[in-house]
Amino acid sequence: MCRFGGLLINLVYRDLTVRYKRSVIGFMWTLLNPVIMTAVYTMVFSTIFRFPTQDFIVYFLSAYLIWHFFAQCTVEACKCILNAGALVKKIYIPKIVLVLSVVISGIINFGFALIPLIFVVLIFGGGFSISILFLIAPVIFVVVFTVGVSLILASLTVFFLDVGEFYNALLMPWMFLTPIIYPMDIIPKEYLFLIKLNPMYYLVECFRTPIYQGTIPNISVIAISALVAIASLVIGYIVFTRAEDDFVYYV
Amino acid sequence: MNMQAIKISGVSVKYRLPKQAIRSVKEYVVYRLKGGRYDYHEFWALKRVYIESARGKVIGIIGRNGAGKSTLLKVLAGVIKPIEGKVEINGRIAPLIELGAGFDPELTGRENTYLNGTILGCTNREMSQKMDQIVAFSELNEFIDAPLRTYSSGMVARLGFAIATDIDPDILIVDEILGVGDAGFQAKCAKRVEGFREKGVTILLVTHDLGQVGKMCDYVHWLEQGTVRAHGKPSEVVAQYRKFMAERA
Ligand SMILES: Nc1ncnc2c1ncn2[C@@H]1O[C@H](COP(=O)(O)OP(=O)(O)O)[C@@H](O)[C@H]1O
Ligand SMILES: [Mg+2]
């Protein structure tokens, strides 16, 4: 497996060059997508929810970056084994490398997307407090969670080609069930459980609190984030290793 | 050392051919609602195959189309896991089954060399050291920094062959690919394979060229419908095989 570290690097390099080096627009889009989304949602939602605009921008963008990272990686992951079908059929590689390369590319994109976030916090927010040092933890949680979900989706899509379609359709409602664009306190008490069943709620909260409120998140939020991340990875790993020997017959 | 380079013990491979091509959740749900069961034909591409080879031998594999030769090489390369039996390989294996696996048309020849090399299990540092040799052998020169989509198919094949054979293998498996490029390049390829043989690399060769088998191989296995029909000295096995084919014709 570690013999294939170089392959992982080269796959990520390919992803990024094909997306960036040969098109400046591709790179700009990574930076601009969160900015544009923020502008649109700010106009719409800060009027609807009468959220103070300045607060909303930081509130939204910090959560949206986490969501966007997760959504982008998992959507890409659906196709990653099938796209490499020719390779899988011809030669041995540890197939997990294909999934990991998708997530690592996503991490790099996420890194670039932090640039607008820094500006937004400096301009519209209260600046940074020492609690931003804590952010490394939620980033690790969300990456681990994403790897797990990606492993599951990548395996399933090999056998059932339309899993990606269903997953895409699911993402929109899932995003709206995650408090990204609205504050938690607009949720009626009887529906609160729906939010609390959603693992992305904890991951988003965990990342947003140090930026938006300048404090370390609630310990239960941290604990649940860590738990869902590990659970996702374990399940994903088991599913993937059970399925991978059969990929060659289906790609 | 009397450790065998290759030891294939009782290997079987079964392909499943679904009776209904159910490849989506929608089809699956509909099919299940109608009370259908997921069902498939089984096809044994290999049945309890035993092959072994000492270091430095050239082993030929012959047989008709569909006999299971490519499947056997894929098992050796680790592409397919056999449903029973064991494969032991001692040393680094270079699969000349498909050249240029993972080549990306958008990347340059050089970038593809790193990508393909790491797919074959080399590190990027090893690839840097081999780069000049690979460029020279493939005769690509300054084209190495052009995107692969601008190459002719012969150039792609040359690059693929140069990479695959430059990774200092202990075991080489070759599947009917010695026919790439023009006559000059083919001669170079044959020379390189001959060079490996002289260096004591174990070679597993699948070919339809029975003359080549006689000249190059130390031992031959004849595969027929997934089983070893005969094995032994090239001259004897080839004679049996020719007779068998003549009777069928
Ligand atoms: N992916 C596959 N699915 C189902 N059957 C296959 C697959 N690959 C090969 N086969 C069948 O297995 C048999 C052996 O194929 P192969 O190993 O390619 O033979 P050879 O290389 O000797 O011509 C053939 O009958 C072929 O049709
Ligand atoms: Mg074949």
Please describe what this structure looks like.
The complex is a heterodimer of chains A (251) and B (249). Chain A is built from ten helices and no strands. Chain A is mainly alpha-helical and 251 residues long. The longest helix of chain A has 32 residues, at 219-250. Chain A is globular. Chain A starts with a helix and ends with a helix. The model of chain A has no long low-confidence stretch (mean pLDDT 91). Chain B is of the alpha/beta class. Chain B has one domain (4-247): 3-Layer(aba) Sandwich (Rossmann fold). Helices cover 38% and strands 26% of the residues of chain B. Chain B has helices at residues 25-33, 69-77, 109-119, 124-138, 153-164, 183-198, 210-216, 234-248, and strands at 6-18, 40-53, 58-62, 84-89, 93-96, 171-175, 202-206, 219-224, 227-232. In chain B, α4 packs across α5 (153-164). Chain B is globular, with a radius of gyration of 21 Å. The model of chain B has no long low-confidence stretch (mean pLDDT 89). The A-B interface holds A 3-7, 9-11, 13-14, 17-18, 22, 84, 86-93, 159-163, 166, 245, 248-250 and B 15-16, 23-26, 28, 77-81, 95, 97-98, 101-102, 104, 106-107, 111, 114-115, 117-124, 127. Bound molecules: adenosine-5'-diphosphate and magnesium ion. The site of magnesium ion has 2 residues of chain B, from α2.
Please indicate the percent range of residues of chain B in DSSP E strands (runs of 2 or more).
25-35%
CATH superfamily membership of chain B: P-loop containing nucleotide triphosphate hydrolases
Helix content of chain B: 25-40%
Strand content of chain A: under 5%
Radius of gyration of chain B: 21 Å
- For the termini of chain A, the CA-CA separation is 22 Å
Largest interface: A-B, 32 and 32 residues
N-C termini distance of chain B: 46 Å
* Poorly predicted runs of chain A: none
Please, how many helices of chain B? Answer: 8
Summing up helix and strand content along with how strands pair, one would put the structural category of chain A as mainly alpha
Mean pLDDT, all residues of chain B: 89
For the largest beta-sheet of chain B, the strand count, sense and barrel status come to: 6 strands, mixed
What is bound: which ligands?
Answer: adenosine-5'-diphosphate, magnesium ion
- The number of distinct structural domains of chain A comes to 1
Shape of chain B: globular
The string of secondary-structure elements of chain B, in order, is EHEEHEEHHHEHEHEEH
Oligomer: heterodimer
CATH architecture call of chain B = 3-Layer(aba) Sandwich
